[in-house]
Fold this protein.
Amino acid sequence: MVWNDQNAIESEINELTVQNIWHRYYDGTFDLDGAYLPIPNMSISIDLTTEASILLSFTCTALINGNLGRSDVTIYYYIDGLIISNPNARAGGYTGNYSSYFHSVSLNYFSEGWSVGTHNISMLVSSTVDTNDIQYCHLIIQSFSG
């Protein structure tokens, strides 16, 4: 049964054709606080000439400072003025007994039925404490037709 499901999924994927790819990279360190903050250089405006499916992929490194009780970072997509609360990526811990940790963070999102026109996609981040930061951020957007 699993094999049939995998074949069905692969046939759906094979019917999609990549139209465009956009990307941004930020290699600096971004200091966080408790507010929802836009991540520098992580905004892309895309123009779609046909209805499309979109794959969003974001990666970064988060430095989480411990010994502060709860200490975490949450990353969100911000699409056309709306915070996408699910999916989100969260890194960190609670009642930490460590000095600090680096976490690899990855957030992916696939959505069908994007309308023709201009769409604005950015990344937002929030942190429970103002001593966390993120760095080496990469945002990739792919549009698919089919």
Observations:
- The mean pLDDT is 87.
- Residues 18-145 form a domain with the Jelly Rolls fold (CATH 2.60.120.760).
